[in-house]
Amino acid sequence: MDRSKKILMRYLLFMLLAVPQVLPAQPRPKEGVWLTLNAPIDLSSKWQIHNDYSFRTLSMSANPLQYLFRSGLRYRVNDQFSVAAGVALVITRTSFNKDNQEFGNEFRVWQEVLRKYVVSPKTNLQLRFRAEQRFFEATKRRDDFVANRFRIRINWHQDISEYFSLILAEEYMQQYAQHDFVFDQNRLITALGCHLDRTSQLQFGYMWFLLPQQTSQHILNITFQKRFQLYGKNKRA
Predict the structure, then answer these.
(1) Is residue 236 part of a domain?
(2) What percent of the chain is modeled with pLDDT above 70?
(3) Which residue in 21, 22, 113, 195 has its CB near the most CB atoms, within 10 A?
């Protein structure tokens, strides 16, 4: 075999060995479903225990992508202003491949400030700022690391009738991790709230994500909220 053929064979062998390592990872699904349960507990007119649980799917299937459990304590300074802090556990599949059964744990500590502006008897505007300290455990695909994420959300709430309300919202996120402060995601949200009784509400929503590298995702969001009040008369959820 002459020299040119040997070079060609080496090149082909190199390509065969390299291709499995340079193939792109499984892309993020374009769609998903979030099923959420909110169960706040009012301890008094000032103090509330914050609880929410979420199951998030891999595309439009029943395969889990992520589980989220969040809890905390909220203090209402007045009817328009409140502060809260708590912890969360997030369990996330380590890739978007449905055959991958590895999940990674993330522990969060979060703090929140919420300001409500009453526009009219049926309309209010809410501005929320939340900071999160995120602690990711090591998996087979990455080392452990710590990130700090900052989220700001503006929420428009419009009562349509006694039983229905419309919610429009936008949430922007920036994250500091591994010495970089970068864009994390932007969410646009619309939802219809159905008031089942004075303490229960069912929301059907649509959420559009803009993610890094100009990728996006469409989310169907179904949320059930049941508020437990341990004092006085129940107010509407």
Answers:
(1) no
(2) 87
(3) 195
pLDDT at 14 > cutoff 90: no
How many angstroms separate the first and last alpha carbons of the chain? 81
Phi/psi for 3 (5° steps) reads -65, -40
What pLDDT score does 202 carry?
A: 98
State the CATH number of the domain containing residue 144.
Answer: 2.40.160
Instruction: Answer left, alpha or beta for residue 218, where phi above 0 means left and psi between -120 and 50 means alpha.
Output: beta
The answer to whether the beta carbons of residues 118 and 127 sit under 8 Å apart is: no
Does some domain include residue 235?
no
By CB atoms closer than 10 A (0-12, 13-18, 19+), residue 15 is: exposed
Distance CA 164, CA 193 (A): 6
Mean pLDDT of 176-180: 93
Instruction: Count the Cβ atoms, other than its own, within 10 Å of residue 58.
Output: 22
In a domain, 208, yes or no: yes
Higher pLDDT, 36 or 22: 36
pLDDT of residue 20: 41
Q: Can you read off the two tokens belonging to residue 49? A: 């225990």
Write down how long the chain is.
237
